[in-house]
């Protein structure tokens, strides 16, 4: 980026001009190409209306978690401690990669198989931030938290549904 004050060329994405120290971060922002770009850059996670979380206690068993996933028709459950703080996530992928083949898995503790300290977002985080986390970590589910307490879950399917809705509106 060329500094608008002194004309010095700067590395793309630089926060400050190398010559005059002008703050460039607020000036060098990408502009949305279309309504999907605009939504991803400007809308918050809350626009997806995150589903209420299905939480299971860390002291529970895999059987409890499987039962919750089946009855609630979800692909992931959030694991919480006694204070309701998020400590992990247990997903369908965890069952396939960590549990499959275990005999009598229903009585095994959740803590042995869950993903500890999962990536999270807040309802006020930008959609692009959530999508980058999902893509970077190959996650299909992302907990939405408020001060560490689970308040929702978003999935890749939720983001895709939102983008498809934006595309249909633009026709």
Key terms:
single chain, 171 residues, alpha+beta, CBS-domain, four-stranded mixed beta sheet, two-stranded antiparallel ribbon, 17% strand, elongated
What is the alpha-carbon Rg in Å?
21 Å
CATH architecture of the largest domain: Roll
- In the CATH scheme, the class of the largest domain would be Alpha Beta
The CATH topology of the largest domain is CBS-domain
Q: Oligomerization state of this entry?
A: single chain
SSE order, one letter for each helix or strand: HEHEEHEHEEH
Strand order of the largest sheet: 1-2-3-4
How would you describe this structure to a colleague?
This protein has about 170 residues and is an alpha+beta fold. The chain has 2 domains: about 1-30; about 45-170, CBS-domain. It is built from 5 helices and 6 strands. The protein has helices at about 35-40, 60-70, 90-100, 125-135, 155-170; strands at about 55, 75-80, 85-90, 115, 140-145, 150-155. A hairpin with a 2-residue loop joins β5 (about 140-145) and β6. α1 packs across α4 (about 125-135). The mean pLDDT is about 90.
